[in-house]
Design goal:
The complex is a heterodimer. By secondary structure, chain A is mainly beta. Chain A contains no helices and 12 strands. In chain A, a hairpin with a 3-residue loop joins β5 and β6. In chain B, a hairpin with a 6-residue loop joins β3 and β4. Classes of the chains: A mainly beta, B mainly beta. The interface between A and B is medium-sized, with 21 and 20 residues.
Chain lengths: ~110, ~110
Amino acid sequence: DVKVTQSSRYLVKRTGEKVFLECVQDMDHENMFWYRQDPGLGLRLIYFSYDVKMKEKGDIPEGYSVSREKKERFSLILESASTNQTSMYLCASSPGQTYGYTFGSGTRLTVV
Amino acid sequence: DAKTTQPNSMESNEEEPVHLPCNHSTISGTDYIHWYRQLPSQGPEYVIHGLTSNVNNRMASLAIAEDRKSSTLILHRATLRDAAVYYCILSGMSNDYKLSFGAGTTVTVRA
């Protein structure tokens, strides 16, 4: 089975800190995605990547950036964390555009 | 983006089939119909997806209407572990094959 691993299950950071959320997949998938999930707002797409060193903005990219230097790793960066970025962050990967996604277990980030 | 409409919630009894409807009247020819589910405190889990023909896998069956404007996810024998939020999502050229999650259907399974 494809495994998508997110480096931390829970994370607490201070306002203004630079935060890195790491995601690694082990099945050579081309596509990777970052979502955040908030009560009442559902899952929203932040950034995605269809190839190494390629990135595209999703629906809510403001305050975030991403890095994909290697095919298996897709990092989400909060340049200066703010309290409104407290959320559950979910990473996903898929082998191609017409295939299903595999999600990680999520990182619950709290910014204080 | 083509939208989907699902009931907010459904209840089922354990070991009985569950039929989850999804309406997508504005579906385009390249749109795949995806179903995911999310258990409490977990990431979404892929269930099944299809384009035109009905699909079966070990988890569920997907029945797609002939005009593709609606579909039904079928869980053949519900168990307590099937209690989750189920999302019906369209993905195709019109939205760059991305997944956009709505509110989904909350399925409750009674023992």
